[in-house]
């Protein structure tokens, strides 16, 4: 076997071995996050609520949602105050967990939040329900502290520590 | 309402099972050893080896069986553990086959080992399948905390009662029945992790909280020192009666790692290091086998001096030959099949297999192989972080800690960083007990990670939510 072939194979083998390592690290990288984060707005700072409201009120987003969704049902959850302000989560029938635990849908970096603080989920009829999961400092819907799971009206403020979230169309 | 600067959308990915990723990586992990096999054949004989089709198909078959079992019994498991183990096992087979071709090793009376190793790998994958099918939930093992302690002690003590043989080279770590031999210390690695995890889960609050603060360190109470003293005494006894430095270091290190993880007290690590240093130094003063290892570690090149100038106890040039192998490999290596690591002699296929990696793949290949080990350890520790139950956390960290320690002890020994101890490089080195144990270890990590990554069940409908009428005002 010629020297050249063997040299090419030797370097090729090292390259393939490292390629495996790099691909494996990429798999880990895609595995790090429990949720997918999409950056919008091209990195420019702009007031998000003003931009989102006209879109939502047009009702065009309804058509993109699943057909069984009722009219007037919220399509997204928006964090309006706190360190995560501006974050939105699309509501697609999944349970949204809130808390400091790293596997929560929304990981709250808030001294007043418990690790599994609250969750928001749809009941059988598609109505979104907020439930406090035994948090220390409580979850507030508008001004009242939650004692049992309660339906969340559109635009009602859910307050957890310094974080306020709303359901929006 | 605040003006927002970051507009991001968080969407749920659902429950990714990542099985297809695993399949792709697995295919990759089968192709690389086949490439290596062809490379060795071309370099040694100038032809593609005849067995390439059989070897490729055999590995693919084993990998496929393992993958299907994971898909069926642990669908949410980590996607990397199985491909990494497959790749390391395949590379090990190729390296052993490559050393089988060496005329020098054949003259030393070493038969072919690759086919044997292939059989052991098959048994290992069979063990992997059995563990995954029958261990439905790792928490079952928690019930056997103290039984596993007894079993581990019996297995550890067993080799001391079997007659030592000439070719064991000092370490009494084998049980021989006829021509068949097993190395119980390998299996004990998993069994004792069950005991440590179960014990520390119950006792960790006492160990972590009841302590006095002294000079910035949390010192444990005297009565809480019991377990660490026991394990320390045990590892010293192993060292004295079986003269097996590696196993002794592995168990003590594993216990320290798990103790630290369970209690978050740095003082345990300090105590552990001090105690192991003191113990090793004390034993080394009277145990000649340990002394030999230390002499060989401090003066590996002195073997080439004339006999009257050599330090006492230096009997083998394998440590020096391993260093030569690393040196001649350089950065990019000599190429598979073109090195002379067979000069190491009888342990070239087992303890010193890393020297072959270092010579024929060079520093670049060596680092890649170490990265593969590091990735397995990382996935294991990640599994421990994600696990929801304390037993699973400790168990996963303990197993991956033991794996990491073993890699460190073997690699450090071969590279002459620490005294050489007779242990096997997981998956790479020749040795049946080791391959079977490590496949079982990977199976347990996959089981824990499946439990940890399984999506939480849908929220149970609250019983009193139904009849409550909400009156909107």
UniProtKB/TrEMBL annotation, chain A:
Low complexity composition bias: residue spans: 55-66
Region span, Disordered: 38-74
Statement: the UniProt record of this protein carries the keyword Signal: no
Domain of life according to the entry: Bacteria
Pfam families documented for this protein: FHA
Gene3D superfamilies: 2.60.200.20
Keywords, alphabetical: Phosphoprotein
InterPro entries from the UniProt entry: Cell_Proc_Reg/RNA_Proc, FHA_dom, SMAD_FHA_dom_sf
SMART domains recorded: FHA
FHA domain mapped to chain residues: 96-146
Protein name: Antibiotic biosynthesis regulator FhaB
